[in-house]
Amino acid sequence: MVRALKITIITCLSQHGIKRQHVSDAAKSAKIQRDKKKIAHYRNLTDACLDLRDSHTYTQDAYDKTSKLLEENPEFNAIWNYRRDILESWQSNNKDIVTHLLEELNLSMGLLKRFPKCYWIWSHRVWVLFKLESLNKPQWSTELMIVAKMLEYDLRNYHGWSYRRFIVDNIEKAETSATTTANEDEQILALVKINSKEFEYTTSKINNISNFSAWHNRSQLIPKIYKLFQLLKDKSLFPQLQPIFLSPYSLLQHELDLVKTGMYVDADDSSVWLYLSWLLTDKFFVESFESTQNYKDVLLQQLNIVEELNELEKDDHPKGWDNRWCLKAMILIRTLLDDSPENDDLTKNWLKRLIDIDPLRKNKYMDQLNGKLVIVSI
Amino acid sequence: MALVKEKHIQFIKSLNDDVTEQMIEYWLSEHLRLNGIYWGLTAVLLLQEPSTLDQQEVIKFVLKCWDLKQGGFAPFPRHDAHMLSTLSGIQILANYGAWDVLNEKKQDLVKFIKGLQLPNGSFQGDRFGEVDTRFSYNAVSSLAILGELTKDVTEPALEFVLRCQNFDGGFGMVPGAESHAAQVFTCIGFLAITDNLHHIDVDKIGSWLSDRQVESGGLNGRPEKLPDVCYSWWVLSSLAMIGKAHWIDFDKLEQYILSCQDTENGGISDRPDNECDVFHTCFGLTGLSLMNNEKYSMLSIDPIYCMPKEVTKKFDKWKQSTT
């Protein structure tokens, strides 16, 4: 018999960050004893499921067996595949699968709570939601509440945020197709409603300024809502949004205020600085200025704010050091203000200070000093 | 701290011993077995101890993972073919130069991979519709290794990948998704393989990537997250592909990776004193190889394909102009 290869990855199953334990031989033997039963059970269940699959068995019993197996190991994607094939087969035999699809949502929800980073569960859920929609039982709005809960458990969950955008996208599609007979104004109104709620959601999430996922989402929403808001007939329906979304300039001022608060909360947090860099360089804002002078005025105003903060940071630092992010922002802003930053002594001086206080990236700053790098972002 | 090379060899070997099979975790991780073999093989190849794994046994196993129905590699016998395991299977065979075992399977593979491309240029991982820039990388890397990359694939695929770029210069899983260093690797890798790096602002993405290094010397995957050894590969290789590897501190990253070693039983973990696994062992070693392979008597790694350069130099590199 060919000995099967056993290269295995144990910790990936239980996510990263498991403390290292050096187990004694006795403990290892005890584990082997304990695992014997588990292994026998797991292998039996796996073989049973795969045998049923290979014999094209699409029965309730087979379906139940896959539930059991997936509860034990949601990473087993071939079993998710088989499960979907069972549902497809029932559907093509005119069986009502809506109840089962709702059951899928329950199963996957329970599993996501235990395995929030498991790709297969998230993608299965997406498949189920599309199925439900095709059967005129869309669940998009319920899903939005569910994903909000998921993001409460882990506010940076990468899957969670992607899933949220995916759900919103589908709510939009559903809303606009439901009103296809109605006029375009109503569609725009519906879209503003959906996206303004998302905007408010990100506002509530950036209370924790380190939540870059929320800042990122905001950068996606702003140009989108602005465009829609322009087309909206009755803007007074959104009294809170109206002054903010009046123009890219009013938006910029509103966001710069938020950023200012954020940088004062923690000047070492990169999230706000990345967002600031977006605000000061994205063409959505930059191209909307009436004149270059207006743009320069905003840049100068920001430069003052950041320089002031940097002075405070220096006072607080035991060695009187500048703040790394303040300096980076100051360099970016001066570059945006000046056409030939490589000749600017002040910028050079700041870069030299960065080399001292941020030695990890000193070669990058050297490249900047030597003019080998165009400064385009923070 | 020094590299405990012998211990790592022992660790990889131990993953293949009789005890492992008696642990429930071995059975619960079947879905990653082919990937796991690729990681383990990469580690021992870099450490210049290829005989740690039995070549014939490995090749036999890869062939047992062939999914006849789909025409691709599954991660384990009887599982289903997927883009992720298919690339691992191809990489293992390429490392051994074992092309002759593929025979007519090669055309099935090409058909399987190309068949997963969607009208918007993206790739799904299998027939069930999950889209991710990881699969764009899997597809072009697999096809390039097989020498089967064509413009009808790369052009729409490029369009999709570029739509996944964000204001910070990074890339996400799908358009609109937040930048993530592992997705940045797949997208820059995609651009490198398809000879399309000129489409991006390397200074901007380089800055974002260099900011991934934190005080401990380790690299994180997104702003304000903890460092993890696997980003020693995703971030560093991305920087290397755009010629900016010097924008981070090698000494500190080396020290960080070495501090994540289990000096008693071998293996490398995500963070110091955590449980080791073959995934982090592989990407800790690839990181060390990329920074200073000679110092550690390791083979030099190719940042694009994550395979030894002596293997990838034999690939017919794809050029826009020649197609």
Core attributes:
heterodimer, A: 378 residues, mainly alpha, Serine Threonine Protein Phosphatase 5, Tetratricopeptide repeat, 17 helices, 71% helix, 0% strand, B: 323 residues, Glycosyltransferase, two-stranded antiparallel sheet, two-stranded antiparallel ribbon, 47% helix
Explain briefly what this protein structure is.
The complex is a heterodimer of chains A (378) and B (323). Chain A is mainly alpha-helical and 378 residues long.
What's the layout of helices and strands?
The complex is a heterodimer of chains A (378) and B (323).
Chain A: H1 25-54, H2 60-72, H3 77-92, H4 98-114, H5 119-134, H6 140-153, H7 158-178, H8 184-205, H9 212-231, H10 241-244, H11 248-265, H12 270-281, H13 283-286, H14 292-316, H15 324-337, H16 345-357, H17 362-369
Helix pairs in contact in A: 1-2, 2-3, 4-5, 6-7, 7-8, 8-9, 9-12, 11-12, 12-15, 14-15, 15-16, 16-17
Chain B: H1 5-14, H2 24-28, H3 33-46, H4 55-64, E1 66-67, E2 72-73, H5 83-96, H6 105-115, H7 133-146, H8 151-163, H9 181-193, H10 202-210, H11 231-241, H12 250-259, E3 268-269, E4 276-277, H13 278-292, E5 301-302, E6 307-308, H14 309-312
Antiparallel strand pairs in B: 1-2, 3-4, 5-6
Helix pairs in contact in B: 3-5, 3-13, 4-5, 5-7, 6-7, 7-9, 9-11, 11-13, 12-13
